[in-house]
Amino acid sequence: MSINWSAVRFASLISVGLLLPVQPVSAAGPYSEGWDGGDTNGWIPSTTSSVVVNDGTDGNPAGSLAVRRLLADPIFDTGATTELAALSGDYTGSQAWMLSFDAKYDTGDFADTWVRFRYQDSTFNGWHKDVSDIFTNAWQSHSVMFDPTWSNAEAIANGWMDETAGTVSWQQLMTDVYHPEIRFILGDQNSALAHIDNVNLKAVPEPGAVALTCIGLVACLRFARQRS
Fold it and tell me: Structural domain boundaries of the chain?
């Protein structure tokens, strides 16, 4: 009897864990969080200078996520991130998404607020978008719509910035998002405190699709009037 040595080598690789099946990336969304339950609910600090806690006394309305700057060298910007399945993984399942959240800038020299998506794992950076230039001690609502099918040029034209020096395209990023982040960029190294509330991710139709739907409805109504 002849021995199929190719099959033997394949079986050996599996037995020692060198040849494993590729695990599919889970699909993202939809997601909603208001931090009314007394926990951070899967959100963690995004930098070593960040402390993240649930604040049941200051929300919009009830509880919220408080992000405080830790003053220990080296001092970085602050933010909150999560690896929850609903906000991570594959975003290509929808033509467009809307990510929204509320923020309150309590104390600090805030310069920007970013929505930031990293790619795949901790070895990659990603893309970010600046969503705020006004920083008051009152709740503000921020939102950003994005399309996984955009080219790099289209993503940049819509305000997104590539942190990877061209090594990760926008469409590649959207296939495996890692640690979505709300980051507060600060202009100094002093203390800072901000609050986050009402984070929502949902699939939405693109403006073009909405316009076509409206045109179709108008045409149907006009046709119905003509027939009557």
Answer: 24-227
